[in-house]
Design a protein that fits this description.
This protein has 317 residues and is of the alpha+beta class. The chain folds into two domains: 134 residues, Nuclear Transport Factor 2, Chain: A (Roll), CATH 3.10.450; 144 residues, Roll (Pnp Oxidase, Chain A), CATH 2.30.110. The chain contains six helices and 17 strands. A seven-stranded antiparallel β-sheet has the order 8-7-11-14-15-10-9. A six-stranded mixed β-sheet has the order 2-1-6-5-4-3. Strands 12-13 form a two-stranded antiparallel sheet. Strand 3 and strand 4 form a beta hairpin. 23% of the residues are buried. The mean pLDDT is 89. Bound molecules: flavin mononucleotide (FMN).
Length: 317
């Protein structure tokens, strides 16, 4: 029995800590199946090995510890309790690396056949890992059925069209959301998804599409800048709504105390520390705590239904 325990420990550590996934062949039955209670995935040996290789590519310094491994008296059932830690260094399944150190733990219920692992049910704290990565998910919002037509809207339009119509009735300002990239270069995009969350604590949010070229820099960054465009910055909005390679080339700007690019001539600018990065499928909702503010005496630009207006020319009701 002790021999069996040692064999599992050796194979596990070789695979997870050194990437020698072939070592698993010594302990996995040819009919091996691995189930995960979190993701509900059911995989075979080949997929398991591929998963390990992928995780190790994202966390090259991964260190896994088996806290305890117990086998029942007749050698047919076993349990492994483990924890792992590593630095999120490279992209994993579309999530850009944060450089953050993360930890997770789990337990595997094992069935043995002919002294080999034939079935494994893995329970691990997926949510803890996601929280550590800084990426809680809004998965509950993505269930099937969310594109059924809305019947009480004239014409029976889809929620997509209805929401577009709704948004066109909503007047906002225009902001440019910025971050410094890995090399300290300024990056930014036009965004009207800004909202104030609370004053105490001073929290704000902004939603950014994951295909944005600014996104990796923003996701990685500890801080972001939000610049409210003034009515004199129509050209600036055009640049930041584009995919231009150096959007700051023709601009006057300065860095906030924590390095976020703040654009001169904006109606107001803030710098904020990123606290949460909620995954909303195509977008990420950044929630950030304001650490610095600059307010100018210039009227803001107004945005409605794809058009821009002079914020100094509003008529009070
Ligand atoms: C008024 C306006 C508001 C916008 N709001 C957002 C937004 O809230 N989130 C977002 O991801 N993109 C938004 N966009 C689109 C981006 O600015 C646009 O996709 C830009 O090309 C992204 O640049 P990048 O890929 O270089 O980061 C908005 C564009 C405009 C003109």
């Amino acid at each position: 029995m002790q021999e069996m325990i040692e064999a599992v420990r050796t194979a596990w550590q070789a695979a997870w800590d050194r990437g020698d996934v072939g070592a698993l062949d010594a302990v996995l039955h040819p009919e091996y199946v691995r189930e995960s209670t979190g993701s509900l995935r059911v995989i075979d040996t080949a997929q398991y090995k591929q998963d390990i290789v992928e995780v190790r590519a994202a966390f090259p310094d991964l260190a896994t510890e088996i806290d305890s491994l117990v086998i029942d008296a007749d050698g047919t059932r076993a349990a492994i309790f483990w924890h792992s830690s590593g630095t999120f260094t490279n992209e994993l399944q579309g999530v850009p690396a944060t450089g953050r150190r993360v930890q997770t733990r789990g337990s595997n219920m094992i069935t043995l056949r002919d002294g080999l692992i034939v079935h494994e049910r893995v329970t691990w704290d997926h949510t803890e890992l996601l929280a550590d990565l800084g990426i809680p998910s809004l998965r509950s919002a993505f269930e099937a059925g969310d594109i059924d037509p809305i019947v009480d809207v004239p014409g029976g339009v889809t929620p997509f069209e209805a929401l577009k119509g709704f948004n066109r009735q909503f007047i906002t300002g225009v902001t440019v959301v910025t971050a410094a990239d890995e090399d300290g270069r300024p990056r930014g995009l036009a965004a009207n998804s800004y909202a104030s969350v609370s004053l105490e604590p001073p929290l704000v949010l902004v939603c950014v599409q994951k295909t944005s070229s600014t996104y990796p820099a923003l996701f990685r960054s500890t801080h972001l800048g939000i610049n409210i465009m003034s009515n004199e910055q129509r050209d600036v909005v055009g640049v930041f709504a584009s995919k231009a390679s150096d959007k700051f080339a023709e601009l006057d700007w300065h860095a906030g105390p924590d390095g976020s690019p703040l654009i001169d001539g904006s109606a107001a600018s803030i710098e904020a520390e990123i606290k949460e990065r909620f995954q909303a499928k195509t977008h990420t909702v950044f929630i950030a705590k304001v650490t610095h503010a600059e307010i100018a005496e210039i009227a803001p630009m107004v945005y409605k239904a794809g058009r821009f207006f002079d914020g100094a020319a509003l008529t009070e009701l």
